[in-house]
Design a protein that fits this description.
The protein is of the alpha+beta class. It is 38% helix and 12% strand. β4 and β5 form a beta hairpin. α2 packs parallel to α3.
Length: 586
């Protein structure tokens, strides 16, 4: 607050100054404004300041401490009640309370704060307040219909499945949004081993709300944001990084996807709160989503691992710890049902709970939980009392079953994978081996199952490097191996996988197979792209190939045919014209 005590007091009326003067241990007898300002200033900046502060109640002392230790000297009126569960009293019987001696309103800056000279004195003895703490519970509070999902293993399996699916199935995107088509989301949902968080239920009509896909919606976007997949035409295909990810530990790839998602511009998660219209109105309506994600990630990093956190508590903690963020620059452009009457610009219609809290739910449920960072406990928001009810008084909300599909999220817990991804742990150990299947590898390069059953990881490995035989056997195949190596797969990952799932050393024939395939894959290397040129006759071709400046740019492969590297074609054309007076036509 860039004013001193005298300036702050001069902004008050005489009646308020008299009320503040009565809060002093020895009220002055002055009645004129200048005299009151001088008397109060002397009391605040004199030796009795500590005693004045001690006379405040505990909550008011906390308010002064928070403002004094805020780097601008401001009192953060939104943050304080989130941290202390209530607000301090600035008024008593409609008159300034004792707290008004310390914290003033600066009308020019539109803020509450402590004057600079007073703040310097207070910092000499006012202790720094403790940082905000988040409350956790051992287990979620039981409510009807509550479902708990542990997501670590699901995320690892789904990652492998989706990467493999992009190789074998046609996953299409709708328009330029990067969002998978409805048919592709259905296809993906049907293949998820543990299913989506909610079943896909078709709405009875176009007005009925339905939850729809969450994981099946998120995975294609996550892969694109992470650079593991890209759109070619309308089809989503793996990139070279996506192919390599199939041979990398899932935890490493999941961490990559989360970090890439934090800065992506493919999608604003709040756009999935479809009941709130106007998000794409003209002008700068919505804030930058990456700033919101950063604030939420910082708050997650302060959460204890393996402890359940209620969503309202996490939302409160974000405000109390100063991790607030903006969802919209202009709430008047957002609305429910009808643009004028349903506008969220009205007082009480754009609260933290309605906007910021819904964004927190969307990011955590659809992306953090899908990637396996957090375990979740949730209810069905379409059921009675299954979701949040804070939107019921909004104009136009009568017909809404829920405000967002994520309203049923009640609790979350950062798991071991989440601790690794969020940087809270340097290492990660999967709760069980990536694949529990036992294998029998024969010298003939045949592979059989000795115990357990093939899971998604094993099937993906065999589909890439082997052909299936009768009697549940597979055999390593050189042709498939060469195709895989050309795509960028790592054959060492195959060898390590086989060794990890057999109790004996691998036959020498397997090592020979690996070495041979690696060598054969490198036998021929693409060194460039060339253009074939056909001359009018063999004499012209020979003349060009023999020219001192052109001989280094082309090769004569047939009597009338020349080959020129495409990257040298422009230079070849120029020399051909200048030196020989010959043209080159398409």
């Amino acid at each position: 607050m860039q004013i001193d005590v005298a300036e702050a007091l001069n902004l008050l009326c005489v009646d308020d100054l008299k009320a503040l003067a009565r809060q002093l241990p020895v009220p002055p007898l002055a009645n004129r404004k200048a005299e009151l300002v001088t008397a109060i200033s002397c009391a605040l900046l004199g030796p009795g300041l500590n005693a004045l502060w001690e006379r405040l109640d505990a909550l008011s002392r906390s308010a002064v401490a928070e403002a004094a230790h805020e780097y601008r000297g401001e009192f953060l009126a939104q943050q304080f009640p989130a941290k202390y569960q209530r607000s301090p009293a600035f008024k008593e019987s409609n008159k300034p309370a004792a707290l008004g001696l310390f914290i003033y309103r600066h009308f020019a800056e539109r803020s509450l704060g402590i004057p600079t000279d007073l703040r310097q004195r207070l910092l000499e003895f006012v202790p720094k307040p403790a940082s905000a703490q988040i409350q956790t519970v051992a287990e979620p509070e039981p409510v009807p219909g509550l479902v708990q999902r542990q997501t670590e293993l699901d995320a690892a399996q789904e990652l492998a499945l989706v990467l493999r699916m992009l190789e074998t199935e046609r996953v299409t995107l709708g328009g330029k949004t990067g969002v998978a088509s409805t048919a592709s989301q259905r296809l993906l949902l049907a293949k998820l081993p543990a299913g989506d968080f909610y079943p896909w239920v078709e709405p009875a009509n176009k007005w009925e709300q339905h939850i729809g896909p969450i994981k099946a919606f998120a995975w294609p976007l996550l892969l694109q944001a992470g650079g593991l997949a890209k759109c070619v035409g309308t089809r989503l295909t793996l990139t070279s990084a996506g192919i390599k990810a199939m041979s990398v530990a899932p935890a490493q790839t999941l961490r990559l996807l989360w970090n890439k998602w934090l800065g992506n511009h493919l999608l604003d998660e709040f756009s999935r709160v479809e009941a709130i219209k106007g998000q794409k109105s003209a002008g700068r309506v919505m804030s930058a989503a990456d700033d919101r994600r950063d604030a939420i990630e910082q708050a997650l990093q302060d959460c204890p691992v393996s402890q359940w956190v209620a969503l309202p508590e996490f939302s409160r903690f974000m405000q109390a710890s100063g991790r607030d963020f903006v969802v919209t620059h202009d709430p008047w452009k957002l609305f429910i049902a009808e643009r004028q009457y349903g506008s969220l610009g009205y007082e009480g219609s754009h609260t933290w709970g309605l906007l910021q809290h819904r964004y927190i739910l969307a990011l955590l449920f659809e992306y953090a939980a899908t990637l396996g960072l957090i375990d979740v406990a949730y209810t069905d928001p379409t059921e009675l009392e299954g979701g949040l009810e804070d939107f019921r008084d909004l104009w136009g909300a009568d017909e809404l079953t829920f405000l967002s599909r994520y309203d049923g999220l009640r609790f979350f817990r950062i798991n071991a994978l989440g601790a690794f991804v969020l940087g809270l742990s340097d290492t990660y150990q999967s709760p069980r081996p990536a694949s529990a299947v036992g294998l029998r590898v024969l010298p003939s390069l045949s592979i059989g199952v000795s115990s357990g059953a093939l899971d998604e990881q094993a099937r993906q490995m065999f589909d890439t490097w082997a052909v299936q035989l009768p009697d549940d056997l597979w055999r390593l195949d050189r042709s498939k191996a060469l195709v895989a190596l050309e795509k960028g797969y790592d054959i060492q990952a195959l060898q390590a996988f086989l060794q990890d799932h057999t109790t004996q050393d691998l036959p020498e024939s397997v090592a020979a197979f690996v070495a041979e395939c690696r060598a054969n894959a490198l036998a021929v290397k693409a060194s460039g792209v060339a253009t074939l040129l056909t001359c009018c006759d063999a004499a012209t071709a020979a003349r060009i190939a023999a020219h001192p400046k052109l001989s280094a740019l082309c090769w004569c492969v047939e009597p009338k045919t020349l080959v020129v590297r495409t990257d040298r074609l422009a230079k070849f054309r120029a020399v051909l014209s200048q030196e020989l007076g010959l043209g080159l036509v398409a």
